[in-house]
Amino acid sequence: MSEVLDEFEEETEESGSSALFYLKVLSLVVLVVGFGLYIGDVLFGKSSLDVLLNLQADKDTLTVKIKNLKEENAVLQKEYFELRQLDPDR
């Protein structure tokens, strides 16, 4: 009878350790998948896309503003140099 109990105890220990192993593996898989989804959302999520589109629009606006200011600066420099040459004091 003791031998049967010993065998049953060994089987229970083995199934308990294998269940614990599967639980650890399942937990690790869930953790890796969750982390992957989080990183994917950070890199490619809606908020990241909104920020990218806003920055591109700001860049376009600033580029147009720079072009306009350069043109205005050229006109003002031309006017300044024309006035400076006509000034008799200098």
TrEMBL record:
Keywords: Coiled coil, Membrane, Transmembrane, Transmembrane helix. The chain crosses the membrane at residues 20-39. It comes from the Bacteria. It comes from Sulfurospirillum diekertiae. Residues 52-86 form a coiled coil. The keyword Membrane applies. This is Septum formation initiator.
